[in-house]
């Protein structure tokens, strides 16, 4: 059985900066991988999970972020050798695409591309939108508390990525050992 963890990018795998518009990096020089992330991804990998980064990058659509820059950022993540795939929704929220969470399209695409035939996958995000989307496809949401989503916590949150990984490993052990 294939099992997977979908991980949202900004504010989890790479650092946000309140000084920047929308806090996100628009240049590869601003793309700073969060310290300690490698070890945590490895713990998921060692437990048999495939790791798929999912990210909403409306900057592609509104012109504040180039594809080339985005690819260079993602080359950095892929160079960790612990990420199996990176899937992007490049649209603005008002474009009515089906891949922008809370629409479940990105997760549906990942499910068919990676042949995840059994509904056993988790999504980690700071945003309620991804949490809603993963529930649509039968996955398990793990939300990380963030100052950006304080009013929109729909489910019990964890403090940080480390706690999110611990929760997944705990649930996995409980279900499958
Ligand atoms: Zn989209």
Describe the structure.
- Helix content is 34%, strand content 18%.
- The radius of gyration is 15 Å and the shape is globular.
- It has helices at 37-46, 59-62, 67-78, 105-113, 128-136, 161-176, and strands at residues 3-8, 49-56, 85-89, 121-125, 140-144, 157-158.
- The chain is an alpha/beta fold.
- It contains 6 helices and 6 strands.
- Helix 1 (37-46) packs parallel to helix 6 (161-176).
- Strands 3-2-1-4-5-6 form a 6-stranded parallel β-sheet, sandwiched between helices.
- It has a single domain, classed as HAD superfamily/HAD-like (Rossmann fold, 3-Layer(aba) Sandwich), CATH 3.40.50.1000.
- Bound molecules: zinc ion.
Name its key features.
binds zinc ion, 177 residues, single chain, alpha/beta, six-stranded parallel β-sheet, 6 helices, Rossmann fold
Shape category: globular
Judging by the overall fold, what is the CATH architecture? Answer: 3-Layer(aba) Sandwich
**Tally of alpha and pi helices:** 6
The kinds of small molecule bound in this structure are: zinc ion
Instruction: Indicate how many domains the architecture comprises.
Output: 1
CATH class: Alpha Beta
Strand order of the largest sheet: 3-2-1-4-5-6
Largest sheet: 6 strands, parallel
Rg, alpha carbons: 15 Å
Helix and strand content put the structural class at alpha/beta
Cα separation of the termini: 14 Å
Write down the CATH topology: Rossmann fold
Estimate the mean pLDDT confidence.
93
Report the portion of residues in β strands. Answer: 15-25%
Name the CATH superfamily classification.
HAD superfamily/HAD-like
What is the helical fraction, as a range of percent? 25-40%
- The parts where pLDDT drops under 50 for at least 5 residues are none
**Total beta strands:** 6
Element-level helix/strand string: EHEHHEHEHEEH
């Amino acid at each position: 059985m294939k099992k997977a963890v979908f991980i949202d990018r900004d504010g989890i795998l790479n650092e946000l900066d309140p000084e920047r518009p929308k806090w996100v990096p628009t240049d590869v020089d601003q793309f700073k991988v969060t310290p300690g992330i490698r070890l945590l991804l490895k713990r998921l990998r060692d437990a048999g999970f495939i790791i798929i980064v999912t990210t909403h990058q409306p900057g592609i659509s509104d012109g504040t972020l180039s594809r080339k820059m985005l690819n260079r950022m993602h080359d950095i993540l892929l160079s960790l050798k612990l990420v199996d795939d990176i899937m992007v929704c490049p649209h603005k929220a008002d474009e009515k695409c089906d891949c922008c969470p809370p629409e479940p399209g990105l997760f549906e695409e990942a499910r068919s591309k990676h042949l995840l035939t059994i509904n056993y996958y988790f999504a980690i995000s700071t945003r309620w939108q991804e949490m809603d989307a993963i529930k649509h496809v039968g996955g398990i949401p793990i939300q990380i508390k963030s100052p950006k989503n304080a009013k929109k916590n729909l489910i019990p949150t964890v403090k940080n990525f480390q706690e999110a990984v611990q929760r997944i490993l705990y649930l996995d052990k409980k279900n499958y050992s």
